[in-house]
Specification:
It is built from 29 helices and no strands. With about 700 residues, it is mostly helical. The protein is globular.
């Protein structure tokens, strides 16, 4: 008689698992109450916990009551409202898209809402809070619709969604920065607010947006059972009677309403909507959406209040006024995003999207393309020398070259030629860097900016500017280089897990980019909070005030790195295919990757030190070059360099002439020009994938 096989004993239940969802909610609520009690004791005045404890017993003084009602309580309630709204919004977006990295930030919802509010302020519109909230809702909804459409409704990978959201957010931020530069007085204070500020003068924002947030939360909780069914798959949900399309649309709209309400109250507080649902999923015994949604809201409150508490504990009460707590939440969110990316299983190389193939395969056709690009670049340089707030004639330029112009024209052209050359050299450097990065990542949608290199260089340069405002060219280049190298090293080391995953490299790069941007904002507002226009201009990529010596580092970097990339051209061709082919053919993968990435870091850092942060060039120029001459790096590299120089040169000229004597930074123009191209690129690859 055989002995029946007994099932192994169930693992002992942990205290949290025994408590279940209701217990987790109660424990989190208790933590929120404790955080709120600590939060309300902090501030710029000397009113402490004991002074506040006396108030309920009628023993406190009137000053303590006034400070509590006028400052600390509005700030606390704003943090609670924003935390609930963003936590629930992130949980809804992640559930609807079934993507753990979806959030109001990665879907550009907050960026769209911020642009709408900044646009109203720039044009002098003083709107009631309700209309301001409606405007933020429309802006966030438009941004989310664009990102989800480009990402094919979430049916493609996480990397594609993050790239689409990051590029859209970059374009929207560029537009917002442009408004703040052109309308500095009307948008005063919006720079720090753009990272999330809990400073409140009264309870108006909370009392008007609070009921809306609670209604949206209630609607989300009521839809929880349908969300549970949706988690089983679209087909199963349809069989069980769930209208999948309508549910997705309604809950996405609900998430955007919540994010827009949060922006209306406190500005774009970064990455709360990403972190809160991730933390909730780590809690044992919590699975149903009727529990996870309120929990995400409570965890969001803990993140917002905890960040504000940590900020003021580390830097003092005044830091709560000067430094937006959204900086701290962004740093925390970037760490969570990196952690998620390290757990992400690579879906394989991101294939090059379909492009229009032009018959440029023969050597003669390739030389024709090079000659045409060279002629266009020459014309752009000539136009750049003529245009500006003071237009000159071609004959004046010839006379200047021969040293026969008067003092006035000589002064104008002596100031102009370093700007024109800086744009050309920086554009060439960024294009070459983008070519190398796309080969290493095997992703034609990657660029140095999305790997955190550009933002890292910006942190280094801004840090030096804050500490030593009159720093010279070489210290500035060294600081930018140090920041870029640090960012690149962090991204590379964190991406390595028994090999280098191209998807993981991009996702971690986006997280590091967000962290570097948050650090940059903190440095600016702490060092000189009232001079944000200067910082914005530099961070948007400007050639203003350039001198010839500033061109030397980027020129040397081009002379060193472009030949290196050309020498590695065959290895990069193989590296762009997959992980196995170059190994079989004997290509030393890691040395080639390190050399290419090191060269791109050097090029990016020197370009940033010369003209500031310029986006999209490293994305557009290599892709356009492949469309013209094919995918071989021997041909892509020279054409990409010429196209990058042409793009930044034209952008600089447009920025100097369109609204002269006011100027638009070249980086903003490249972002505005690059965004439609990027949207078209993603849309073409989407339609081809769907077909």
């Amino acid at each position: 008689m055989s002995t029946p096989v007994q099932a192994p004993p169930a693992p002992p239940a942990t205290p949290l698992r025994r408590l279940g969802g209701a217990g987790a909610v109660l424990l989190t609520l208790a933590a929120v109450v404790l955080a709120a009690a600590v939060h309300v004791t902090q501030g710029t005045s000397s009113i402490g916990a004991l002074d506040l404890l006396r108030l309920p017993f009628g023993e406190g003084d009137s000053e303590a009551a006034r400070i509590l009602l006028a400052s600390r309580l509005p700030r606390l309630l704003a943090g609670v409202a924003v935390g609930v709204a963003l936590g629930v919004a992130g949980a809804l977006l992640q559930a609807v898209s079934r993507n753990p990295m979806a959030s109001p930030d990665t879907l550009a919802v907050s960026s769209g809402a911020y642009l709408a509010v900044a646009g109203a302020a720039a044009f002098g519109l003083t709107l009631p809070l309700a209309l301001s909230g409606l405007l933020a809702l429309l802006g966030g909804l438009a941004a989310a619709a664009l990102v989800l459409a480009l990402a094919a409704g979430g049916r493609t990978g996480t990397t594609r969604l993050i790239l689409a959201g990051s590029a859209t957010a970059l374009a929207l931020h560029s537009l917002t920065n442009l408004l703040m530069i052109l309308f500095e007085e009307e948008t005063s204070g919006l720079f720090a607010w753009g990272s999330g500020s809990l400073v409140q003068s009264d309870l108006e924002a909370v009392t008007q947006m609070g009921p809306l947030i609670l209604l949206a939360l209630a609607a989300a909780v009521l839809a929880g059972p349908k969300l549970d069914i949706l988690g089983l798959g679209d087909d199963t949900a349809t069989v069980l009677g769930v209208n999948v399309r309508r549910l997705r649309l309604g809950l996405t709209l609900l998430a955007v309403v919540l994010a827009a309400a949060a922006v209306t109250v406190a500005g774009p507080v970064g990455f709360v909507g990403l972190c809160a649902p991730v933390i909730v999923r780590l809690l044992p015994g919590v699975h149903r959406h009727r529990t996870t949604l309120p929990l995400a809201g409570l965890v969001g409150v803990l993140i917002v209040l905890g960040s504000d508490i940590a900020l003021r504990a580390a830097f003092g009460g005044q830091a709560g006024v000067d430094v937006p707590p959204g900086v701290v939440t962004t740093l925390f969110g970037a760490a969570v995003m990196v952690w998620l990316a390290r757990r992400y299983r690579d879906a394989g190389p991101t294939r090059q999207p379909p492009v229009v193939r032009v018959a440029a395969r023969s050597r003669a056709a390739f030389l024709t393309v090079v000659a045409a690009c060279t002629a266009l670049l020459t014309g752009a340089v000539f136009l750049g020398m003529l245009g500006g707030d003071t237009w000159v004639l071609g004959g004046d330029l010839v006379n200047w070259l021969n040293g026969r112009t008067g003092r006035g024209l000589t002064f104008v052209l002596d100031q102009r030629y370093p700007r024109v050359l800086a744009a050309v050299l920086a554009g060439a450097a960024l294009a070459a860097a983008g070519t190398a990065v796309q080969a290493v990542c095997r992703n034609p949608l990657a660029e140095p900016g999305m790997l955190g290199v550009t933002a890292g260089a910006g942190v280094g340069a801004i840090t030096l500017l804050a500490l030593v405002p009159l720093a010279g060219i070489w210290p500035m280049s060294a600081a930018a280089m140090a920041g870029a190298l640090a960012a690149a090293a962090i991204v590379y080391l964190l991406s390595w897990r028994g090999g280098l995953s191209s998807d993981r490299l991009v996702l971690i790069g986006v997280g590091v980019q967000a962290a570097c941007t948050a650090v940059t904002v903190m440095i600016i507002v702490k060092a000189d909070p009232w001079n944000t226009a200067m910082a914005l201009t530099w961070l948007s990529g400007s050639t203003y005030g350039r001198v010839p010596v500033q061109l030397i580092p980027v020129a040397l970097a081009l002379l060193l790195v472009v030949p290196l990339i050309a020498w590695l051209r065959r290895d990069l061709d193989l590296l762009s295919l997959d992980e196995d082919t170059p190994r079989v053919l004997g290509v030393p993968l890691e040395p080639v990757r390190l050399a290419a990435l090191g060269g791109s870091v050097l090029l990016t850092a020197t370009a940033v030190s010369a003209v500031g942060v310029v986006g999209f060039v490293g994305l557009i120029a290599p892709h356009a070059a492949r469309a013209l001459v094919g995918s071989g790096h021997a041909r892509v590299l020279p054409v990409a360099v010429l196209l990058g120089a042409l793009l930044v040169s034209l952008a600089d000229t447009l920025g100097r002439t369109v609204i002269a004597p006011a100027q638009v930074p070249a980086g903003l123009v490249t972002s505005l020009l690059g965004t439609p191209y990027f949207v078209w690129l993603l849309w073409r690859s989407r339609t081809r994938a769907d077909g």
